Amino acid sequence: RPDGTLVASVAGVVERVNKLVSARPLHSRYHGEVGDVVVCRVAEVGQRRWKVDVNARQDAVLMLSSINLPGGVQRRRTAEDQLNMRQFYVENDLLSAEVQAFFQDGAMSVHTRSLKYGKLKGGVLVHVAPSLMKRLKQHFHRFDFGVSAIFGMNGNVWVYCTPPGAIETDELNDVAMPIATEEGDLGHAEYVPTAEERERVCRVRNCLVALDAAYIAVSPTSVQAAYDASVKAGVGVREMLLPEVRLQICQTILEHTAGENDRSSRAMGAHTSYDGPGQ
Questions:
Q1: β-strand 108-112 against 60-67: which pairing, if any?
Q2: pTM value > 0.70
Q3: d(Cα 90, Cα 83) in Å, to the nearest integer?
Q4: What confidence tier does 255 reach under pLDDT thresholds 50, 70, 90?
Q5: DSSP state, 254?
Q6: CB 117, CB 176: distance < 8 Å
């Protein structure tokens, strides 16, 4: 403006890096960073690579050399592996992966070398706004009520029933080892959940839909708060999608979040006001 006021062309959150001022839009495509956990869908099988949809401006690339071979074999990929690519992933397969690098044209490269990544089956995929996803220390979360979730930074959340005897994701490392289930699966595809377990998965799914509609940050804490609020209110799974019920749940989450922030600020103030012994 002539008076020197900076006005952004999009509505969003102001970000400052030294003298650079920018506005991050509230609704936009996913902008990946190296190390992000994503839940994506295979769009095309090409030559020594798969193209996967990561909800970005362009499809990401999963190279044949960036996956685990059956049985955890460590060797160079051969022409036979290239011919058998459809035995690993085909079109419309869902998989969890990690952003590895970026090409010069801006496309991202992902990999599934770790045992915690791979093909996803036996669950439900929920889409939320990528800007609502919080960067977490661990994006693979297991809730106490028997449901697990993979919080993809690209706005895709995979919700599934925790199978009995499942391995904690923290125990999975990058050292390949034989997997007893189908090649590329995470090991929970063969488990058939009960009706009660399916209902809990649906409740978590509706909690994510409510958080996305109210534009509340999506994290294990907010999902747990929404789940507890719906159970405490005695709301059925179907009724959770009603606008008035969804608003009530979201108000409970905001009150819970505000209370947590107040307690944290008071604890921080008490810590900073303490001068220590001998002062």
A1: parallel
A2: yes
A3: 13
A4: confident
A5: H
A6: no
The answer to whether 96 and 118 are in contact (CB under 8 A) is: yes
pLDDT in tens, 25-42: 877 888 888 999 999 999
The position carrying tokens 């970026």 is 102
Answer whether 210's CB lies under 8 Å from 170's CB: no
What would the two tokens of residue 146 be? 């028997």
Helices then strands (H, E): number in the chain?
4, 12
Nearest to 212 by CA among 133, 124, 125, 96: 133
Residue type, position 45, single letter = V
Question: What is the tens place of the pLDDT at every residue in 225-252?
Answer: 999 999 988 888 888 888 888 888 888 8
Distance CA(50)–CA(55), nearest Å, equals 15
DSSP per-residue codes, 159-221:
EEE--TTPPPGGG--SS----SSSTTB-S-SS----HHHHHHHHHHHHHHHHHHHTT--BSHH
Measured between alpha carbons, how far is 44 from 41 in angstroms, rounded to an integer? 9
Alpha carbon distance 277, 279 (integer Å): 6
Is a pLDDT exceeding 60 seen at residue 77? yes
Average of per-residue pLDDT across 64-79: 78
Query: Which pLDDT band, with edges at 50, 70 and 90, does 179 fall under?
Result: very low
Q: Which residue in the block uniquely carries the two structure tokens 């993979």?
A: 150
